[in-house]
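Quick one: examine this chain and its backbone structure tokens and tell me how the chain folds. Here goes:
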Amino acid sequence: MAEGDTGAPKSGGAAHSDAFSKREAASEDYYVRQKEMEKLQNLKQKIEEHKKHLEELDKHVTDTMAQGKK
């Protein structure tokens, strides 16, 4: 045993500990997935905004070129 260990088992036994550990890990995984989904949604929104901006720029360039040919 390491220094400071009392040698007493955790309350609830090993099965309780395993269930708690699994639940905690699942909760952490869920939290991480939710944060990743938020980031992906933000990125998707930014991509859409950039696409719209590119379309506006393309239209402006096309219009400018058309006016130059007149």
In short: The chain is about 80% helix and 0% strand. The radius of gyration is 29 Å. The helical segments are 13-68.
